[in-house]
Amino acid sequence: MANYRIDFSKEILGVPFTIGVVEIHRARAPERALRAAELRFARQHGLGDWRERADRAVIAGDASRA
To answer: Can you tell me whether residue 6 is helix, strand or coil?
Structure first.
């Protein structure tokens, strides 16, 4: 199982600004890591859905290599 880092960003005038990063340790697949990060980001910010604060959630890569 791999480690993943997911960047959450808000796009302003077409430019993405990172507003948060979530690291997921030991996910079976990138899709599972992304879903877990979305849930964790929403929980950390007291939101019902992560899209209330961010426009994009992008897998930045395997965090174990970073």
So the answer is: strand
Distance CA 65, CA 48 (A): 32
Looking at the DSSP assignment, which residues form a beta bridge with residue 6?
22, 59
User: pLDDT tens digits, residue range 8-31?
Assistant: 999 999 999 999 999 999 999 999
Q: What are the residues whose beta carbons fall under 8 Å from the beta carbon of 32, sequence distance 6 or more?
A: none
Report all structural domains of the chain as residue ranges with CATH numbers, in order of start: 2-62 (3.10.20)
Cα separation, 41 vs 57, in Å, equals: 10
Could you give the CA distance from residue 12 to residue 55 in angstroms, rounded to a whole number? 10
pLDDT at residue 65 above 90? no
Q: State pTM to two decimals.
A: 0.86
